[in-house]
Amino acid sequence: MNKNFNTILFDLDGTLVDSQKGIFNALSYMVNERNLEKPSQEVLRTFIGPPLPDSLRVHFHMNDREIDLAMKSYRSYYNEHGVHEYTVYQDIELVLETLLRNGKTLGVATSKPEEPAKRIIEHAGLSSYFATITGATFDESRSSKTQVIATALERLHHPDKTQILMIGDREHDMIGAQANQIQAIGVTYGYGKKEEFLPFSPYAIIDSPKQLLTYV
Fold this sequence. Notes:
By secondary structure, this protein is α/β, with parallel strands linked by helices. It has nine helices and eight strands.
């Protein structure tokens, strides 16, 4: 274990849990209800990780009012059904147990709104591992991964930045970590690819949850 890293922040979707089924089903419900052209599976995968309003602007060229209506459609499905349509990645609980046993402080920093993020983590039986679960706000006052990480660190009483790692599967995790002047590890078992991380010179890139123990 690397004693230099005492605080470990985890992304949620694509890092702790495979939430693709719930997100895809919610997006399909939204597309049908709003009479939108259904994106390809490849495009849909890009919706996992970034703030949803950003993806709606990019892929559907929506204005603020259209985004608000689309978000209501998405949440009407996701909050009732999608929040339970996920699986915890293999060995995640073993990794969390090991880190906690070795004195690490663990937190979640996700672009998913905080309320459903907490529901997923509680439903998965993982709540006890985390000192904070920090997500985005529904009003978009805290939406970027940079803002989410900053809030998580504030809730953890501003630990030494040289001792913090952000673990995530998309470039937004790397961008947020850099903006907060902390190190990051990219994971390829989620929804991102190695090439997505390389421009940000991550501390490491791992292909399975257990590999994390090599670095922290």
